[in-house]
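Q: Entry one of two.
A:
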Amino acid sequence: MTDPDFSEPADGAGQHYPAAIQPQDQSAAAPSPRRHRVRNMMLSAVGVIVVIIIVASVASGGGNGHKTASTSSPASVPSTPSADQQLITKLEATTGSDGNSLYSDLLAVGDNPVTMAKRMCSGSSSVSIPSGWSSSDEQAFISAVQSTECPSVSMKPAGPQYTVAEQQAIDAAEGYINMGSGFSREGLIQQLDSSAGDGFSRALATFAVNHIKVNWYQQAVESARGYMQMGGFSYSSLVQQLDSSAGEGFTYAQAVYAAKKVGL
């Protein structure tokens, strides 16, 4: 008689299990791990793609930055003026005893200041200074040359060596300028040369005028003020009086400058 609590195994192996604890079909109870593996593989692939995109973006950004830096233009550096240009600039800014710049004075007599400077720096003694320059003009020119063209070379000018007659003429010329009445260059030479004046020779009078420091434009203004105190002058009549050889003997430019300075 068969016990109702036991069932015969299907494979006939002789094993008996209680019916209450009969093993269940594990293929139906346990979920298949295959779908999890597929999902994990897909997530891993997505992660790799994201990493690749990030790396590519960083590399692209770095490349662009490097390219921008390599193509950027360098900052411009201001060039230093040459010694020749520095000399010309200084001479243009220095007013000579005649009211003009030393540079324009040299050009007027056909002298090249750069050529003169190089000859002076080389020790040449054949450099001739324009005859119309005063000693202060010469000193200003030498200083400009030395500071720009040859600062390592000593070019101290020798002290003035005047004869007694020359010194007397210079003293007389400076005395007339200090009066403040206003003399033109030609008018001062005539005053020194005239027998009714100081009686110096024409050569001594010219020498003296060339060796004093004076601004002829300012002298024209002082002369114009004297005429304005007399009264009765128009702009054109004052310019003519200052410019005329029979009057004060100033240049036309100096006369015009003076007339404007006194308000006409």
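Q: Entry two of two.
A:
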Amino acid sequence: MVLVSLAFLLLSCGSEKPQDFESLRTPIINGQKCLASEFPSSVEILIDALVDVSPLGVRHIVSQICGGTLIRPDVVLTAAHCLDENEITQGFGRMLKLRFAVISDLNLKTFRQGRQIPKYAVWASKWVMHEQYGEEVSAQGTGLQKDNDIGLLFLSKALSVPPAQILSPMEQQFLTQGSVVNIVGWGQQAVESEQQDSKTALSKMCAQTRINELGEFEIQVGSDAQSARKCFGDSGGASYLTLPNGEQRLIGVTSHSYDSEGCTKGGVDTRVDAYWNWIHDTINHGL
């Protein structure tokens, strides 16, 4: 969901080598490790950034930052706030360079240890946020909103994994309150980092949960402490629905927490079917 401030990192680390972005990563609670065959379209987005935090100097940040979903061989769907420079820096410093890359590893431990973008990662050549992102959020900022929190990464080359299909407006009747959905993410599996299982830390995790509330532009995924749910650090990640014919559809992009209680009531996804036209128009324009 929403990114955690980079303030500590930017103000404390040196500029001589890349540093890690220590967010509160709680992607899948009450889940299990994904198999290699499960949801191959789900990818992890990395950043390589230089941030000027004068007078303390320039900080080099290399980190995983968000999830995403491959919807075409060279296009990844994610949340707009994952691509927003102001969200990434949280107002601490000026972005000098920002690049995005994607990987689909089942485990991120090797990446975290090396603190450099892997040679096999695929770089993004362009990225686009929804032009009205954040403009229509209510003053309360809780519950289901119309945040337009959706964006696209255009990759420099195609990935060799099958992309997900987006739920179309003609298939909306299959998306209902109470629908069983699959969620995917990397990172902590408990709200408190010390409670997570070290054996599964930074692994790609999967779980089944339900849609607790269905809005016109957003959905609440998961509901309480007993349900599987996404949480802080899993922004941009996917929710999948299985249709009656057995086909899977991408239905949601993780956006924000439901209210001020954080992850206790599940997370809120942007409904991708509500942005069907924007997605296809942006892809066609981008190409």
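A: Comment on entry two: The first helix runs from residue 7 to 12. Residues 67 and 237 are 4 Å apart (CA to CA).
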